[in-house]
Specification:
alpha+beta; 7-stranded antiparallel β-sheet; 5-stranded antiparallel β-sheet; 32% helix
């Protein structure tokens, strides 16, 4: 039997988890706010209608999901407070303004949004994405443990994740495996195993992506 393509598999990830669907903008805004944070949501253009679909698997320190809006929308959360948000488009693209950065996010360029940094995004009509929510307290504790000292200020990542960069290939493979296992497998049902996977993800993000704690750690005698 011929194996399904990676793109086909990504399009079905998390289908067995609770699904939210709606065409109503306020209902969508409220539901998305429950998963992430309060925000403004505006459909771009009068001729468009939402066809939102969200699948979500909540975890202890790391949660996973897949979503699409079905219309071009502008989203303005302001900033995140208590979590980091990783977004990986599997179709279409998003334009994200974060701090001083402007990122055209696509299947080759994901994003990681850090707490306290103001951002906004435009999610295009044909866009669909996988997302990972990492709790801030757990991530900052993991960072302090990894570097062996308290953080020097809040942990902030450079928001763009270039999946074509040679430096990110190991992280890319880990993300693909974790997303697939969290969606289709049973290992995440075992709390001790899931905890180790969460730690592996957080440390891998610290090792693979640019962030402000690297510079402060290098400056330490």
């Amino acid at each position: 039997m011929q194996a399904a393509s990676p793109a086909l598999l990504r399009g079905h990830l998390f289908s067995r988890f609770p699904k939210f669907t709606s065409h109503d903008a306020e209902e969508v805004r409220q539901q998305v706010s429950r998963i992430f944070c309060d925000h403004d949501l505006k459909v771009v253009g009068k001729s468009q209608a939402l066809n939102t679909q969200i699948h979500f698997r909540r975890g202890n320190r790391v949660s996973y999901g897949r979503m699409l809006y079905g219309a071009t929308v502008d989203i303005e959360p302001g900033n995140l407070d208590d979590f980091y948000l990783i977004q990986i488009p599997v179709a279409g693209h998003e334009t994200i303004q974060c701090d001083r950065h402007s990122i055209l996010s696509s299947t080759n360029v994901g994003t990681i949004i850090s707490p306290e940094l103001a951002f906004r995004m435009r999610h295009e009509k044909n866009a669909e994405k996988l997302f990972i929510r990492v709790e801030r307290k757990a991530f900052e504790q993991q960072c302090a443990q990894y570097y062996g000292h308290l953080l020097r200020g809040a942990l902030h990542f450079d928001p763009a994740i270039n999946f074509e960069s040679p430096l990110v290939q190991s992280l890319k493979r880990l993300l693909e495996w974790q997303l697939f296992e969290a969606s289709e497998g049973d290992l995440f049902n075992q709390p001790l195993v899931a905890a180790r996977f969460e730690e592996t993800l957080m440390v891998s993000l610290l090792c693979s992506l640019q962030h402000n704690q690297q510079a402060s750690n290098e400056a330490t005698p």
